[in-house]
Amino acid sequence: MNTPDENITPLFARPKHRPSPDGAAPFLPMSRAEMARLGWDACDIILVTGDAYVDHPSFGMAIVGRLLEAQGFRVGIIAQPDWQSAEPFKILGRPRLFFGVTGGNMDSMVNRYTADRRLRHDDSYSPNGEGGRRPDRCVIVYAQRCREAFKDVPIVLGGIEASLRRIAHYDYWSDKVRRSVLADAKADLLIYGNAERALVEVAHRVAAGELSRDLADVRGVALFRRIPENFIELHADDLDSADEGARQVSGDVVIRLPGYEQVEQDKEAYARASRVLHRESNPGNARPLVQRHGDRDLWLNPPPIPLTTAEMDAVYDLPYARAPHPSYGDAKIPAWDMIKFSVTIMRGCFGGCTFCSITEHEGRIIQNRSEGSILREIELIRDRTPGFTGVISDIGGPTANMYRMACKDPTIEAACRRPSCVFPGICPNLNTSHDELIRLYRKVREVKGVKKVMVASGVRYDLAVESPAYVKELVSHHVGGYLKIAPEHTERGPLDKMMKPGIGAYDRFKTMFDAAAKQAGKQYFLIPYFIAAHPGTTDQDMMNLALWLKRNRYRADQVQTFLPSPMAVATAMYHTGVSPLRGVRRGASDKVEAITGLRQRRLHKAFLRYHDPDNWPLLREALKSMGRADLIGARPDQLVPAVQPPGTGKAAGTRRPIRNGAKPQRFTTKGVRMR
């Protein structure tokens, strides 16, 4: 699926909307003065974003803005506007075509609140990391202000917040099911997923005079419309049993999801809608979906066709300034500081982890850049990024080692509805070769001026063990003391609900990692990531994980509890107590224990920090109630001491020395991966 459908227009094949005799703008304008210097009287498209404007391909608005610029459109940026009135949304004047609205690189609620629903006081995507520069549910708020500013200008939603909230969805922070963000924002169109192909088509067709209702045939688009008479409706209620027959239906087919009002009241209906949405996520076989909201039908077209390597190269080769907009002066933008020396080599993830939002947004099909494009970007970093010392901080993507991996047979790939290519085991049709990635690593190391290339993206260890040569290459050249790894848990129950491999795969990778480090004469450590309170996890599971951590001399500095992000499969489990991984049928669904109570969530978190004296009273109480008082005591095989030692508390988190000179390993756990 890395070649476009024959009916898909290549991304850069359309005639430009207008010629650009002066080339690209130094930065896309954020003020009237900048527009005047470019000779513009108005913008064709104005992009409104919840992030600071950094003109770099790791920031969504930069990619979208530069892509539209390359298509001949005049594009302005309104970044982190004051949303208290419509005036800041008028700063660039009235756009000729439409407003494009996004929350930024993260869902605004995930960005602003912790898993315990506490307000974060910082924001990595804001100048000086300042919190509070975007509203809650900022896509909705920004769209409403755009409408107030210029009532009849079309509004197009995009980005991860719009993608993850494109249908009726459970919202963790309000603890209720909310309507599609398109309905609440009162926007005209929503583009989900990687937006390049859909956005270019929408922009050109709007420029040609088409209205939003005329764009119902664009892949990756959601809008409110009536179902055409020639479409045959299939109901999600019967889809699992009727699916094979559905493929034999002649004519156009649309699948009707349970409506907003139904999923709001009926948790099994919600789980059924989640299951169907995820099964209809393969661009090769996905069918349109429709969901009733009040007296209107929300229509979702199939996902966009992935970009080819040539198209990906062209997107990443656009003339980015590779810096924050000059208006920020000397302000530090933490997200920029983190990624300015890193390189994205691919998109997408076929892992299908149920707690992760990557698949819902970027899809399961890996989209790759060429070696040449990657090497050109590294040379740009070397030559144009101030402060570069010769170290590339990361070369990867959503997963470090899925570069160039794909199904061996495009026909099989186009027909597949599996949510994961690697669970419950690696699909025999998946090409797991790391040869091209190894070759890329070696070429990158040869770039003049590059001293070290790090791999900081998470390594998928169940794939890595298929290639001992990759593990050796990784450890010998691309690890700087620590490597992130994500077993997430040790127990089969929660791992099955996460769609993650068993801990045995981690053990095999660790053995290979340690052997490669020893051979290279290095002292390196793995940083394992774990999740507390994931759906399907029992207190017993967390106790067993804590014992595993203690046996392996791991201590967590920080722990994050499972955060139910919008649209994730695990979020459906959390809200409904039902697993959408199997057929959802009234009275016969697969039940899941969801850890929703605050005390139990704290307990699961405490098990991950079994060594913290602050957690010992809670753990002692829990172990007694579980009938495991035998784990209370001072022996090495016991989990917590029987008596609270004098002077212990928040300041007494120091480590005891480990005998035989072995060093205990510290790590930080994370429970959500969002891009």
In short:
By secondary structure, the chain is of the alpha/beta class. It contains 24 helices and 24 strands.
Total helix count?
24
Instruction: Bin the strand percentage.
Output: 5-15%
Strand element count = 24
What percent of the residues sit in helical stretches (DSSP H or I)? 25-40%
Q: How are strands sequenced across the largest beta sheet?
A: 3-1-4-5-8-9-13-12-11-10
Average pLDDT: 92
Low-confidence residue ranges: 242-246, 649-675
Give the oligomer, counting copies of the same chain as homo and different chains as hetero.
single chain
Number of domains: 3
In the CATH scheme, the class of the largest domain would be Alpha Beta
Q: So, CATH architecture of the largest domain?
A: Alpha-Beta Horseshoe
What report would you give on this structure?
With 675 residues, this protein is α/β, with parallel strands linked by helices. The protein folds into three domains: 1-220, Rossmann fold; 222-295; 341-611 and 655-668, Alpha-Beta Horseshoe (pyruvate-formate lyase- activating enzyme), CATH 3.80.30. The chain is 32% helix and 14% strand. The chain has 24 helices and 24 strands. The strands form eight sheets. The protein has a ten-stranded mixed β-sheet, sandwiched between helices. The protein has a two-stranded antiparallel ribbon with strand order 2-14. A hairpin with a 2-residue loop joins strand 12 and strand 13 (296-300). The chain is globular, with a radius of gyration of 25 Å. The protein starts with 31 loop residues before the first helix and ends in a 7-residue tail after the last strand. The relative contact order is 0.09.
